[in-house]
Amino acid sequence: MPNTTGSTHTDQAGAAAVPQRIVAAWAVHDAKKFAAVFTEKGTLILPGVFKKGREAVEEFMAEAFAGPYKGTRVTGEPISVESLGPDSAVLVTAGGILLPGEKEVSAERSIRATWVVVKEGTGWQLAAYQNTPVN
Q1: Terminal CA-CA length for the chain
Q2: Is 68 helix (H, G, I), strand (E, B) or coil?
Q3: What share of the chain is helix, strand, coil (3-state, %, to 5)?
Q4: 85 partner at 20 to 30 Å CA-CA among 53, 69, 119, 121?
């Protein structure tokens, strides 16, 4: 269960559900669905990668799903949810990429990620994502 602190006015369940939307999009290797989780100007930072904007994220993930991420799955579970106010939160997740047939993330692909999520309209969107290897 994630550590949840901050304002009780934030829809923490909605904010904490954002990573599962990414996991679901990755499971079907749908770059458009993946990018739709981001805000229009959202950022994606991975080791050696910086993408800004939904379109850039979609292009990157389409190439990745056809190349190095082909056949993979991803996992990420919130370990911390910090409310910044009623419409924003910071999440930290533990997870990583699973190769075909794997049930657990290997030490080499284990990550911690920071997610800045914001409420837009009636739903939560990803404004900024960054991950770093655990090892």
Answers
A1: 23
A2: coil
A3: 25, 45, 25
A4: 53
CATH 3.90.79.10 fits 3-123, yes or no: no
Task: Kindly tell me the sign of the dihedral angle through the C-alpha atoms of 56, 59, 62, 63.
Answer: negative
- Per the listing, tokens 């904007």 go with 53
Q: Specify the pairing of strand 38-46 against strand 3-5.
A: unpaired
E strand map for 23-122: 38-46, 49-52, 73-85, 88-98, 110-120
The answer to whether the CB of 113 falls within 8 A of the CB of 129 is yes
Average pLDDT over residues 88-107: 96
Q: Mind listing the pLDDT tens digit for each residue in 47-88?
A: 999 999 999 999 999 999 999 999 999 999 999 999 999 999
User: How far is 16 from 119, CA to CA, in rounded Å?
Assistant: 12
pLDDT digits 0-9 by tens, 35-47: 999 999 999 999 9
